[in-house]
Design the sequence.
């Protein structure tokens, strides 16, 4: 497993510059606007994109097929991808908190809530997308991936059009504090699904 | 007799292709060439061996162990080369070394670097800048740098120039000096296999057509060249394939079973394959 | 020690190896007890199958020219080389007697015979 994660990190080292620029850019915006929510959510998106980009490279070079002839289990290939995502999501979360703490005026309840929500959202998105990618691959799964991201947004848009009122602030707050647990459960279910998909996969 | 690789009655069915009753036995310490035209089923057979796809029937053992239930215990000992370089393109050889160190318990860093040096592969060059030859050499270096007892290779030499192919074949011969090592290599470049193989197995349309020692093939087969008239008098049971041209007939025959004064040329493995496959096609046409 | 094989001579490769090693032993170039190259090394160097070299060595062992020990290799046997030489000379003599008989039948003179023999010998 360590070898697999090392592979992804080394392979993406070129992208590291791009990510660094993104981090600095959104950090600057956050400071200027006194609103770190953009920073939080963008970091989360970047974190989720990292394992997906890694999978895309692997798919291009047909790595999986080769890796399975090595002392690597199918399970560890699946888990290593989730692990990669989790590692960077946590880094994104920590960065967001640090950013908020450094500029104490940004350290508001609102921003804390946004941080937690971003982390949970990241985990949930990852959990929703990965089984699709394991089943169909990154190239073919791209469209499905867009749909998955699109659905919640569409849902909210339609809901507001239909005049369904948004829950009140207190409800939203409690929900957000609970969200990591919900996200964790979805995460575990997702791993389970991915493992059974990958076990049967033919290369 | 210990077998490095054994397939018994292996079958795999796809919608428009079927691998049927595949029987292959590779004794330890030998090299087997797996020959067939493109699409004959070579890659499918190799994927079945490596447990990359599921078989419908039959058994496969590698180094004496079942390739499904006991595969994990032998992966350290299987060196694999597939027909494309399978490393993510931004990595270089030094990084690959660090990664594989963590994957293979028996990874030998020194051996890897020595092989890379021998193959003139730079440590800091990214894979995406490699030529095809370099990619293959890298894969081969990897396959020899852990405790491999059997090399399983799918088209390891196609697309390479003759000089590099020679280098690689030499490396294989070096590997087989240890008599507990074996090689199973598929190719459609038969001239390579003809040089180094001990056994040759032909596959055509998903079926094994023959599997014999290279010596037997070369000693027993010959190409008879005669007129259509003379051909009528030949015992049909020794004929394995026919090619007619405007000026006579060429036939693949068991040359030790013919008597009389005929022109009989040596048959190369490639000749044998072409004649037999064409003959098979002829039979298929008749039906 | 030199072993030269031809892919096109029509004679099976293992036979070529057998006869070359035999003559090396008979002419004394390979001495009693001397180690032969391993089957695998020979196969690699000559670029032939190890099955071929094994067959050659098996035949040499069958005829008593070499002995093989697993794990140690093959060695020139202690067979009395003079005895072998004598046997071969006997065989040559027999063949010669036949040739002389045949030449008598077609009225060949001795010098014609020698000429023919010379041509054939030098053709090799």
Sequence:
């Amino acid at each position: 497993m360590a070898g697999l994660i090392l592979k992804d990190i080394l392979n993406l080292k070129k992208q590291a510059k791009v990510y660094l620029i993104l981090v600095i850019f959104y950090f600057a915006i956050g400071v200027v606007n006194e609103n770190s929510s953009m920073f939080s959510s963008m970091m989360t998106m970047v974190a989720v994109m990292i394992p997906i980009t890694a999978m895309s490279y692997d798919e291009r070079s047909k790595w999986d097929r080769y890796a399975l002839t090595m002392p690597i289990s199918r399970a560890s290939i699946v888990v290593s991808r989730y692990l990669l995502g989790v590692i960077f999501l946590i880094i994104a979360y920590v960065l967001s908190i640090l950013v908020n703490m450094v500029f104490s005026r940004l350290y508001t309840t609102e921003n804390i809530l946004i941080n937690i929500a971003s982390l949970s959202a990241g985990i949930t998105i990852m959990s929703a997308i990965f089984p699709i990618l394991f089943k169909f691959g990154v190239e073919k799964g791209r469209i499905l991936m867009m749909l998955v991201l699109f659905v919640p947004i569409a849902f909210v848009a339609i809901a507001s059009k239909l005049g369904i009122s948004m829950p009140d602030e207190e409800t939203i707050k409690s929900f957000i504090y609970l969200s990591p647990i919900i996200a964790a459960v979805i995460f575990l279910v997702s791993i389970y699904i991915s493992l059974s998909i990958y076990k049967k996969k033919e290369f | 007799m210990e077998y490095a690789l054994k397939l018994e009655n292996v079958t795999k069915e796809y919608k428009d292709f079927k691998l049927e009753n595949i029987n292959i036995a590779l004794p330890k310490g030998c090299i087997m060439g797996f020959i067939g035209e493109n699409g004959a089923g070579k890659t499918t057979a190799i994927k079945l061996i490596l447990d990359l796809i599921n078989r419908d029937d039959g058994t496969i053992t590698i180094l004496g162990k079942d390739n499904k239930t006991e595969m994990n215990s032998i992966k350290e000992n299987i060196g694999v080369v597939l027909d494309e370089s399978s490393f993510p393109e931004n990595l270089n050889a030094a990084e690959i070394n660090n990664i594989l160190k963590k994957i293979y318990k028996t990874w030998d860093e020194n051996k890897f670097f020595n092989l890379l040096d021998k193959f003139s592969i730079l440590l800091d060059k990214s894979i995406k800048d490699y030529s095809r030859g370099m990619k293959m050499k890298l894969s081969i270096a990897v396959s020899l740098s852990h405790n491999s007892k059997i090399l399983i290779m799918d088209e390891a030499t196609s697309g390479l120039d003759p000089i590099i192919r020679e280098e690689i074949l030499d490396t294989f011969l070096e590997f087989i000096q240890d008599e507990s090592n074996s090689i199973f290599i598929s190719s459609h470049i038969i001239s390579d296999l003809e040089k180094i193989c001990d056994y040759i197995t032909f596959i055509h349309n998903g079926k094994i057509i023959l599997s014999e020692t290279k010596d037997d093939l070369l000693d027993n087969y010959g190409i008879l060249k005669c007129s259509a008239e003379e051909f009528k008098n030949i015992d049909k049971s020794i004929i394995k394939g026919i090619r007619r041209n405007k000026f006579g007939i060429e036939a693949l025959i068991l040359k030790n079973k013919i008597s009389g004064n005929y022109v009989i040329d040596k048959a190369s493995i490639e000749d044998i394959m072409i004649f037999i496959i064409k003959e098979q096609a002829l039979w298929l046409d008749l039906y | 020690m030199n072993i030269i094989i031809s892919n096109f001579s029509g004679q099976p490769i293992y036979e070529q190896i057998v006869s070359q090693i035999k003559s090396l032993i008979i002419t004394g170039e390979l001495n009693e007890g001397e180690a032969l190259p391993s089957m695998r090394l020979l196969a690699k160097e000559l670029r032939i199958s190890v099955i071929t070299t094994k067959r050659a060595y098996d035949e040499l062992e069958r005829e008593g020219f070499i002995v093989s020990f697993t794990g140690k290799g093959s060695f020139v046997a202690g067979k009395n080389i003079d005895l072998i030489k004598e046997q071969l000379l006997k065989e040559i003599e027999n063949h010669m007697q036949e040739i002389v008989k045949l030449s008598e039948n077609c009225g060949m003179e001795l010098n014609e015979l020698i000429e023919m023999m010379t041509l054939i010998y030098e053709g090799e």
Notes: Helices of chain A lie at 2-11, 13-33, 37-61, 63-67, 74-102, 109-161, 169-200. The mean pLDDT of chain A is 85. Chain A touches chain B at residues 2-4, 6-7, 10-14, 54, 57-58, 60-63, 65-73, 202-203 (CB under 8 Å). Residues 2-200 of chain A form one domain.
